[in-house]
Amino acid sequence: MKKLLISLCLVILNISVFAQSASEKVMAENIMKLNSAKTAEDLQTAKGKFAAQIDVSPGWHSNYYAALSALKEGEMLLRANKLSGIETLANEAAAFLDPIMKTESKNSEVRLLMAYVHLLKMNANSSAIESERKKAREILYLSQNNDPNNPRFDLLRTELEYWYLKGKGNDKDLKNLFQNAAKKLRAFSPKAKTDPNWGLKDAEYYISVLK
Fold first, then answer.
1. Topology of domain 22-209, per CATH?
2. What is the DSSP secondary structure assignment for residue 168, as one 8-state letter?
3. Is the pTM for the entire model greater than 0.85?
4. How confident is the model at residue 11 (pLDDT cuts 50, 70, 90)?
């Protein structure tokens, strides 16, 4: 009987390990698709795939990447000066992040996306520029929220200033800051293949549009 119980436990353990491995493989494939997305439709597809994984994949990654997909679509609209749909996408991203904000309160990547939410809202609603900017800055600059080892903080800090100061003649300083962020992003290595590693393409985009 004891041997039977041991064998049964081993079978259950093997099934669990296999299921986790398969889930991580799907997650990694979806992350690759997100990173290569070029259109709003690509981002919407990626968001749907991550949202479908939320109930079947343990941890924070599914919520995180579903939120990131919505935020990337929002930034795509922002770059094209199409402001009407941005706040909806920012709110959608916040809804994906809300379930993991408490369980991942020490996770700088999750906190960073909340700053991203406020950055987009700052640009979507002219009456909320200062209040949303303040919320983003609290995450990006305060020592208890900031992560000096995460180069995406450097990126979003510079993006926040770029959009706030756009057209005010600070291109040279901002370009230098984006170049510094890009340098750090190139040197960054995620701990796991499903951990965030985005940002370099964004930094390179802003470098290209600044004089």
1. 1.25.40
2. S
3. yes
4. very low
